[in-house]
Design brief:
Length: 431
């Protein structure tokens, strides 16, 4: 596929993936169309050589895998991970907050967004709602996305804060509350949000037991730049990686060994959840595969030690106005291709042999790449790489595409880079 075609596919995937729940559902759609078979994570897997499968252990986590035609107890895993969540606002259980006739939505901050980038934008909500059912331990759940933007967070006029351009600290509890509407005679100021939600779901208010809802930026992504060399979009971190791994597992078919992708939730808040990377979930999943193939835990451990993991997340591109924030030589530009993220302190997981393998793979398939190291006085962010490799000790490398405005409501990347990321994911699962 050409760069613009892959960019268009990425933007379509992002538009449909307004929440981690939707990112998983859109991933399942791609896998279904490619002939993958769904497995129930709660049951024993039934597998065969040459099979293609996926399973959704939780609503925001997705695993997909392929089995080569040659199955042995010494085969190697090719594993790759990404995360489905992004920094945003999360709706609190009692969401109604009124002020002088204005209707607002009570929210908390999820992860580490750049708060002021969420102001003066069209916003909406997406996530999951739990409803009454006959079985108290099996409530009905529905995934919801309100397509029409109905929220915004307005800035205070400069006339009332003449120092605004010198920088203003936004208070999370008071300044980051989306405006929903104006009170009128038809609205109940104590239940307007839950009533709106019930109407969207076509249920009674009393049927709604709980919800997990996220405020998302409702603006579409687009190509920009003089020659459309950039992609600007919400949620590039980390749906770029989810898209690339889905394409890679679909298009890359090794004759032997097992290819696996794990799309986890909650990376932005530390991964310490049942659906996050810092849990026994991934290890349990691999053991279920080996048990279904007739092998024991000892054989699995042997395979793990000889396997390879890619932790795929975004990287920092050089900012033209803040060059002093970057290492003077180990930096990457947008459209430089895939970035190998290196940290001697293992905030990004790597080892020299793993980096060498990635370099040879890129050279073989003409995939552009750069090695990136943070400025020594700038800590930078973390990834799932160190977390997963502590559960599954194997050769590991952190890679991703370089981008600007990371954690903004709208982020920026190079158009060429998604093709490089897809090409590397495909080569990883094919070679």
């Amino acid at each position: 596929m050409r760069e613009k075609e892959i960019a268009g596919e990425l933007l379509s995937y992002i538009k449909k993936s307004a929440s981690p729940y939707h990112a998983v559902l859109e991933g399942i759609t791609m896998l279904d169309e490619a002939g993958f078979i769904e497995l129930d994570f709660r049951k024993t897997f039934c597998l065969k050589a040459g099979g293609k499968y996926y399973t959704k252990p939780f609503g925001t986590t997705l695993f997909a895998f392929t089995i080569g035609n040659q199955v042995t107890n010494t085969q190697q895993f090719r594993l790759a991970s990404a995360h489905t969540d992004h920094p945003c606002l999360h709706v609190k259980p009692t969401a109604e907050l009124t002020s002088k006739g204005y209707l607002r939505v009570n929210t908390e901050i999820y992860g580490g967004p750049i708060l002021n980038t969420w102001l003066d934008r069209p916003l909406s909500i997406a996530g999951r709602v739990a409803l009454k059912s006959e079985n108290p331990f099996a409530p009905e759940t529905r995934v919801i996305r309100v397509d029409k933007p109905f929220l915004t967070i307005p800035n205070l006029a400069i006339h009332m804060n003449k120092e605004v351009n010198k920088g203003v600290e936004l208070m999370r509890q008071t300044d980051m509350l989306p405006l929903m509407g104006v009170l009128n005679e038809t609205l109940n100021e104590k239940s307007y949000f839950i009533e709106f939600l019930a109407k969207e779901l076509s249920v009674e208010v009393s049927d709604i037991l709980d919800f997990d809802l996220y405020v998302f930026c409702a603006e579409d992504g687009l190509l920009l730049g003089m020659n459309e060399e950039f992609i600007q979009s919400p949620r590039l971190d980390n749906l770029t990686s989810c898209h690339a791994l889905l394409r890679g597992i679909i298009d890359g078919n090794r004759e032997d060994g097992i290819n696996v992708i794990g799309l986890f939730d909650n990376e932005e808040i530390g991964s310490e959840t049942k659906q996050g990377a810092d849990s026994a979930l991934f290890s349990m999943f691999l053991e279920k595969i080996y048990q279904a193939l007739g092998y024991d835990r000892a054989a699995l451990n042997d395979s793990i030690l000889s396997s390879f993991l890619i932790s795929m997340d975004v990287a920092h591109a050089l900012h033209p106005s803040k060059i002093d924030k970057y290492d003077p030589v180990n930096y990457a530009l947008m459209n430089d291709g895939v970035v190998f993220k290196i940290s001697g302190n293992q905030r990004y997981t790597f080892d020299t042999e793993a980096i060498a393998s990635m370099v040879m793979l890129c050279d073989k398939y003409n995939i552009p790449y750069k090695k990136f190291v943070n400025h020594s006085d700038v800590i930078g962010g973390g990834t799932m790489g160190p977390i997963i490799s502590s559960w599954l000790p194997m050769k590991t490398v952190d890679i991703g595409i370089p981008m600007l405005a990371m954690h903004s409501a709208r982020e920026l990347m190079g158009t060429k880079d998604q093709k490089a990321l897809v090409d590397l994911a495909t080569a990883f699962f094919m070679e």
